[in-house]
Amino acid sequence: MMGAGLHTGLIALIPHKAAVLFLLSSMLIDVKKGPRTALIITFSLALPLGLIAAALVSSHTTDTWTIIILEAIGAGAVMQVAIFEMLPEALTKPHRLMKIFTAFLGALLIAFIQTTHGEHAEHGEEHHLETVHGDDHH
């Protein structure tokens, strides 16, 4: 089952990484070749190294709080960049109301996906536990 979750996660990340790569490319047009190459390599290695680090940590600890704290640090870093670096600049350009609307719509979509995914994951876990313990009476 863990492999299916990994594939789902990777499939979800691919469109995001493509959009970020497009944005990064447009931001690096005026940067000299050496620093631009270093930034592209850093960006390209961030996801695989993060996945490896996450796999190592999660395979060597059963402490839920360790995982929660590390996820909170990662989420906080993303939120900091989005809120303080990207959002103010994005909302000062033309079509400001449309951008606010689409940001709000995106947040609602993510909340919906998380809510429905969480419900399915809980039912799948219950079914898995019942099957493992021989209590499958559905």
TrEMBL record:
GO terms for molecular function: metal ion transmembrane transporter activity. Keywords: Membrane, Transmembrane, Transmembrane helix. It is a multi-pass membrane protein. It is found in: Membrane. The chain crosses the membrane at residues 6-25, 37-58, 64-84, 96-113. One of its GO terms (cellular component) is membrane. InterPro entries: ZIP. This is Uncharacterized protein. It comes from the Eukaryota. It comes from Oikopleura dioica.
